[in-house]
Amino acid sequence: MKEQEHMNPEKEQELTLEQALKALDETIDTLGSRDIPLETAFAAYESGMRLLKVCSDKIDLVEKKVMQLSEEGEIREFS
After folding, report:
1. 9-34 CB burial, b ≥16 within 10 A, e <16
2. Is residue 65 part of a domain?
3. In a domain? residue 1
4. Tens digits of per-residue pLDDT, 28-51?
5. CATH for 17
6. Burial, 71: exposed, middle or buried (Cβ in 10 Å; 0-12, 13-18, 19+)?
7. 49 lies in some domain
8. Which of 44, 46, 61, 65 has the most CB atoms within 10 Å of its CB?
């Protein structure tokens, strides 16, 4: 992810888990750079925290679906 390339929160919510993990990895790389301005680092940190929540929410949803599947023995959409 380039310095100016931070997604808005709405687009972050639309990412698949794999896309969100990749964006989070790119954000970590950005934060690891020693030559980024403080404002850019802060924006990357904020984006990273949102991406972390997106990943966590998506993983939680999958876990709930799996738990429901294993409890009932059939596939049923979690709502």
Report:
1. eeebeebeeebbbebbebbeebbeee
2. yes
3. no
4. 999 999 899 999 999 999 999 999
5. 1.10.287
6. exposed
7. yes
8. 44
